[in-house]
């Protein structure tokens, strides 16, 4: 059974035992289930226990990026000088991801971020074509994606 699913089921079981399905009980149940699974790690394998903290770190990073992107787009839209700020472009971003799911995850995360849209991925999964509303420079955009999103997703999917 998938360990994440098992951990979620343990969280639901905890909330059922407590008789309250609120967020605090679900989070506590998830943490409790995580430690219960950790105690049995020699039977399960250590990979899951490396990925949960990485996923939580990625979630924090993504939420921060989401808020900042919303603020940038809102400032741009509300500006009197929209024509100067609006510099749409398509940027080819070379990828170092070796997992199809990781490439799809990256493309979806960028599409969900205001101001960017994943347009296409090359057939060999080595290049992501990204539309951006306000291009500073292609190099800066590539660096932000590779050092921010791609590095974290690579750790999450390929570790």
UniProtKB/TrEMBL annotation:
Topology in the membrane? Multi-pass membrane protein
> What keywords is this UniProt entry annotated with?
Cell membrane, Membrane, Transmembrane, Transmembrane helix
Primary residence:
membrane
TM ranges are 25-41, 53-71
| UniProt key word Transmembrane helix | yes
**Top-level taxon in the UniProt lineage:** Bacteria
InterPro entries assigned to the protein according to its UniProt record, in alphabetical order: Cation_antiport_E
> Where does this one sit in the cell?
Cell membrane
Instruction: Offer a single GO CC term for the protein.
Output: plasma membrane
- GO molecular-function annotation terms? monoatomic cation transmembrane transporter activity
Q: Record's family?
A: Belongs to the CPA3 antiporters (TC 2.A.63) subunit E family.
| PANTHER family reported for this sequence | NA(+)/H(+) ANTIPORTER SUBUNIT E1 (PTHR34584), NA(+)_H(+) ANTIPORTER SUBUNIT E1 (PTHR34584:SF1)
Q: What is this protein called?
A: Cation:proton antiporter
Protein's organism: Thermanaerothrix daxensis
